[in-house]
Design a protein that fits this description.
By secondary structure, the protein is α+β, with helices and mostly antiparallel strands. It has one domain: Endonuclease/exonuclease/phosphatase (Deoxyribonuclease I, Chain A). It is 16% helix and 36% strand. The strands form two sheets. A seven-stranded mixed beta sheet has the order 3-4-5-2-1-13-12. A six-stranded mixed beta sheet has the order 6-7-8-9-11-10. Helix 1 links the parallel strand 1 and strand 2. The protein is globular. The termini are far apart. 47% of the residues are buried.
Amino acid sequence: MRVISYNLRKNRAATELAALAETPDLDALCLQEVISSELPQEIGDLHLADSTKYNRLGLAVYYRRERYEQTASQSFELKKSLHDRLFTPTTERLVGSRLLDRDSGHELVLASFHAAPLTALNSLRRNQIKAAHEMLQTLGTGAPILMVGDYNYPLFKDGLSQRVKKTGYDLSLSDRMTYTNYKFFRGHFDFVTSQGFTIEGVETLARGSSDHLPILVTAAYGTANTHHSTISTEPLAS
């Protein structure tokens, strides 16, 4: 399975989606910071599975209908940060779709996730990630889960990796940084947490008009990740 995740930077990179959809053997697009009301039903060979409805800037999942059949989808609310409450209406930070792989017969859950902004604490983002994983379990009990998106977690990722592993998930980073605009907050913001998949690679794609770079995830049905982060010197988060 090949999935691209992309934060569109307040929808300004929406014009790049048609070109991204032409990526060879692409199965899905998971988007963040979209304007849901402006989303097309089709982008190339990809069909809109679902999108958030109540956010000013929302999330969406597209999938290749030729290969997959959608059997369920749902948007989820997560614990809000102070920034969410004061400045930007952000009700839903997760949208997931349960898909049936027509080729293999596997059922899976694919999700687009956007964590609270950097003004929030890592502890809140950890709460959101844990809650998101639990909610996706209800969408597809026992099915492999692939959650991609903007985790807004530039520091202490080793500690986060250990925490999600305790709950049965793996965390995978891409081969290059996905965010370089802030002097002090640059690095891997966009990554993958998964359960029941082998992550064969996560590639950072070329920069577009967004402040994030898209990532291309290549995954296979399995039980453990083979792609590892190169980060090994970060202290654990408190």
